[in-house]
Design a protein that fits this description.
Blueprint: H1 3-24, E1 36-37, E2 47-50, E3 63-67, E4 79-81, E5 86-87, H2 90-95, E6 100-102
Antiparallel strand pairs: 1-3, 2-3, 4-5, 4-6
């Protein structure tokens, strides 16, 4: 692979990595968000209530309504969804409307 193509791929992957923070709401003060939620019913039709990493809505922390669907990069950085399924990366989990329990393959989980 030539050097220019390698650099272009690296820049693209780094840009996608920074966009994951936007998709997941990393750095957002959830309580200050206009799109705060406590269940999927609080969000619009094409949105899901995405909770902070590890929360899964099992505590009193609210989440943030995020759009579902869309395209995701083919970067393998597995996450365990709150539904017990393993997703290829955080984008795929959020696109499916699933919050992330932890960063890794789920123990005994199905793969999405």
């Amino acid at each position: 692979m030539n050097k220019k193509l390698q650099w272009a791929i690296l820049v693209f992957v780094l840009m996608l990595g920074t966009s994951f923070g936007v998709v997941l709401g990393i750095g957002d003060e959830v309580g200050a968000a206009d799109n705060e939620c406590f269940s999927g019913e609080d969000c619009g039709g094409a949105e899901a209530c995405i909770f902070p990493l590890g929360s899964c809505g099992e505590d009193e922390q609210g989440g943030v309504c995020r759009p579902t669907g869309g395209r995701c990069p083919d970067v393998y950085d597995p996450v365990c969804g709150c539904n017990g399924a393993t997703y290829p990366n955080s984008c795929y989990a959020v696109a499916a409307g699933v919050s992330i329990r932890y960063w890794d393959i789920c123990d005994g989980a199905t793969k999405k």
